[in-house]
């Protein structure tokens, strides 16, 4: 079940990135470049999670 553990890790990282984005945006003078970087990373993680879902899906 290494795939399940990897999915859990990715899911946790996705949530952490979501929280980081929300925290960054709360600041009055937030760094837009940092937010874009975080969003890109979050999207990359989401893509990896979807790949894993497809691999775990029974044929």
Question: Any descriptors?
Answer:
59 residues; mainly alpha; 2 helices; 85% helix
Brief overview:
With 59 residues, the chain is mainly α. Helix content is 85%, strand content 0%.
Number of domains: 1
In terms of DSSP E residues, the strand content is under 5%
State the total count of DSSP E strands: 0
Order of helices and strands: HH
What Rg is obtained from the alpha carbons, in whole angstroms? Answer: 14 Å
Structural class: mainly alpha
What order do the helices and strands come in, and which of them pair?
Blueprint: H1 2-26, H2 32-56
Helix pairs in contact: 1-2
Descriptive account of the structure:
It is a single chain. The chain has 59 residues and is mainly alpha-helical. It has one domain (2-56). Helix content is 85%, strand content 0%. It has helices at residues 2-26, 32-56. Helix 1 (2-26) runs antiparallel to helix 2 (32-56). It is elongated and about 50 Å long. The model has no long low-confidence stretch (mean pLDDT 93).
């Amino acid at each position: 079940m290494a795939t399940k553990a990897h999915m859990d890790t990715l899911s946790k990282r996705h949530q952490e990135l979501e929280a980081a984005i929300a925290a960054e945006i709360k600041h009055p003078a937030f760094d837009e470049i940092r937010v874009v970087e975080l969003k890109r990373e979050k999207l990359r993680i989401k893509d990896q999670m979807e790949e894993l879902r497809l691999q775990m899906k029974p044929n």
